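It is worth pausing here to work through a concrete case rather than discussing structure prediction in the abstract. The textbook approach is simple: state the sequence, then state the predicted structure, then interpret. We follow exactly that order.
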Amino acid sequence: MQIERYETGKRMSQAVTCGGFVFLAGQVAVDAPGASIREQTTNILTRITRLLDGVGSNPTRILSATIWLADMSTFEDMNAVWDDWVPSGHAPARATVEARLAAPEFAVEIGIIAVAGADAAPASFRRGQ
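Step two, the predicted structure:
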């Protein structure tokens, strides 16, 4: 079984495909640290969409999402953005928990498992194997 790694750094890959599945690293709002929970969630979902697109997948193919919130009181605001993003009829299995995140400027982190697309990601998207 072939394993493909995308946007690979020293510590982790942002996406890994294997056996018809895509596994995304937990995504934080690297472009919006310290912003509101709504802004951070929007930034993360944009990143997730880009990563899924890069491996020929999309939000309709998400099987499971794990969401970590630094403060559970932000649950409804995060859900407002999530609900607008998830395609109607394609809600994945999901868990949301409260946890201390890697840095205090991050209020939310989202991990995704999805079905990979039939098309291989372009070589320009790969940064390491």
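Step three, interpretation. The mean pLDDT is 92. Strands lie at 3-8, 13-18, 21-27, 62-69, 93-98, 108-115.
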